[in-house]
Design brief:
Largest interface: A-B, 37 and 39 residues
CATH topology of the domain at 26-180 in chain B: MetI-like fold
Distance between the termini of chain A: 41 Å
CATH superfamily of chain A: MetI-like
Radius of gyration of chain A: 22 Å
Helix content of chain B: over 70%
Number of strands of chain A: 0
Structural class of chain B: mainly alpha
CATH architecture of chain A: Orthogonal Bundle
CATH class of chain A: Mainly Alpha
Order of helices and strands of chain B: HHHHHHHH
CATH architecture of the domain at 26-180 in chain B: Orthogonal Bundle
Strand content of chain A: under 5%
Largest sheet of chain B: none
Order of helices and strands of chain A: HHHHHHHHHH
Distance between the termini of chain B: 49 Å
Strand content of chain B: under 5%
Shape of chain B: flat
CATH topology of chain A: MetI-like fold
Oligomer: heterodimer
Number of helices of chain A: 10
Shape of chain A: flat
Structural class of chain A: mainly alpha
Radius of gyration of chain B: 22 Å
Helix content of chain A: over 70%
Chain lengths: ~240, ~230
């Protein structure tokens, strides 16, 4: 190790093993929260997106209202409504739900999941709607019923078209998760805020955490690029 | 229903602050976006490199972290500068970094990066023949940029600007976290004091919804106007 780095490490009071542990715990919380909300959000979004393409307005209407409300308001407000609102539901404090929802992690998880599910529903819906008509006609000509058509033709081809927009949504969610620190969750940003207020060192605390987020972002970008190459390999030019 | 427990005027003032914040940030973002896109397309490797570093950096970091860094870091930087000036020159210089300015600067910088990408794409969509024609008429580079590129690029940039604006509007809610008394902050304090979260947050959410929905209609109208006379083939 070069001397000047060793000297700097010896002299600095902020990046000790203890604060690094705090950042690590924050990183684990952030990844945990983002991963869970993305997975649950995606699982919820696929059926919602399919129902959203149904012609009957009684089916697609409520889903449109849901996505419109969650996409038209800031996530911070949604988080506040759920975090402060749950405690106000009459009688909840006597049920077992209170044991779960008094932890700030679960209101945050619920808010993030509902938010990402709304955006993901619209992304998948867009991809389903832009399925080339010939593909559906061909599937019908082969006698496939609606369910088989969805499973074998429409959804796989929609997934390919959705992956790029979805990767943006994943990165957006990672960045949006920083607001979890506002409801006392010690995620990466929460750890940085604690360390800032202990040492009054904004540059050290926040630049370090910015670098952590940047590393996470680039890992995600790289992973999605790999996935996209894999899914779209049939479209690659022959000599490359 | 509309009885806001006496918080109505404070919420209305907060809403005005939110809107001011959004428009000032938009102006900064548009200016930065134009500069960034011109730098990326300038052909100068240094300028393009700086612009690329800027957009990559911004897209890797959450807006809230950036805002905290600017707000808390900005004050420390001002304090250090003020100490230095006082000791070396005897100049008395100080100003309080307030949340509004930090908010405008941070949101402007973040969306400047997104606008850079939008404008870059839009500039590239301008027909090369138009630029050649301008050259043939003896237009200077600046003249071509101002009279040919910008008017024709705007039509292509409009949908992207609209999307960025929608996201920007919702990002303004974050400035309440660093202490700006916008409508989100007022609602939070009222909700805590009165123990009525729905009562205060739902109207604020409705204001945001009205702003995003109204903007959507306005952008559609602008888009239709900008595309008058363009034959769209399908």
């Amino acid at each position: 190790m070069p001397d000047f780095i060793a000297e700097w490490l010896n002299k600095n009071e902020i990046f000790t093993a203890m604060t690094l542990m705090e950042y690590w715990d924050g990183l684990v919380t952030t990844v945990h929260l983002v991963f869970l909300s993305l997975v649950i959000g995606l699982v919820v979004a696929v059926p919602l997106a399919i129902l959203r393409t149904v012609r009957n307005p009684l089916v697609s209407g409520p889903i449109w209202i849901y996505t419109y409300l969650f996409r038209g308001t800031p996530l911070l407000i949604q988080l506040y409504i759920i975090y402060y609102g749950v405690a106000q539901i009459p009688g909840i404090q006597e049920t077992f739900w209170w044991e779960i929802f008094r932890e700030p992690l679960y209101p945050a998880l619920l808010a993030f999941t509902l938010n990402t599910a709304a955006y993901t529903t619209e992304i998948i819906r867009g991809a389903i709607m832009s399925t080339p008509h010939g593909e559906i006609e061909a599937a019908k000509a082969y006698g496939m019923n609606w369910f088989l058509r969805m499973r074998r033709i429409i959804l796989p081809s929609a997934a390919r078209r959705a992956v790029q927009a979805y990767s943006n949504e994943v990165i957006f969610m990672l960045h949006a998760s920083a607001i979890a620190s506002v409801v006392t969750i010690v995620d990466l940003t929460g750890a940085a805020r604690n360390i800032y207020s202990r040492f009054y060192a904004p540059f050290d605390a926040f630049i370090f955490v910015a670098l952590c987020y940047m590393a996470l972002t680039f890992i995600l970008v790289f992973a999605f690029r790999k996935l996209e190459n894999h899914l779209l390999r049939h479209q690659r030019p022959v000599n490359s | 229903m509309f009885d806001l427990k006496g918080y109505g005027p404070a919420l209305a003032e907060g809403a005005v602050i939110t809107i001011e914040l959004a428009f000032l940030s938009l102006a900064l973002a548009l200016a930065l976006g134009l500069v960034g896109a011109s730098a990326k397309l300038s052909g100068s490797r240094v300028a393009a490199g700086i612009a690329t570093a800027y957009t990559t950096l911004i897209r890797g970091v959450p807006d809230l972290v950036m805002m905290l860094l600017f707000y808390y870091g900005g004050q420390v930087a001002v304090n250090m500068l003020s100490d230095y000036l006082w000791e070396t020159r005897g100049i008395d210089f100080f100003f309080q970094f307030d949340p509004f300015i930090s908010g405008v600067v941070t949101i402007g910088l973040i969306f400047g990066a997104y606008m850079t990408e939008t404008f870059r794409g839009a500039f590239l969509a301008v027909d090369v023949g138009q630029i050649e024609a301008a050259k043939a008429y003896g237009f200077s580079r600046w003249h071509t940029f101002r009279r040919v590129m910008i008017p024709q690029m705007l039509r292509h940039a409009l949908p992207g600007i609209g999307n960025n604006w929608q996201v920007l509007l919702k990002t303004t809610a974050l400035v309440s976290i660093i202490g700006l008394t916008d409508m989100v902050r007022v609602a939070e304090e009222a909700a805590k004091a009165e123990r009525m979260p729905f009562h205060f947050f739902v109207p604020v959410a409705a204001v945001y919804l009205a702003l995003t929905a109204g903007s959507e209609l306005f952008i559609k109208w602008l888009d239709r106007r900008a595309n008058v006379g363009v034959v769209q083939g399908n």
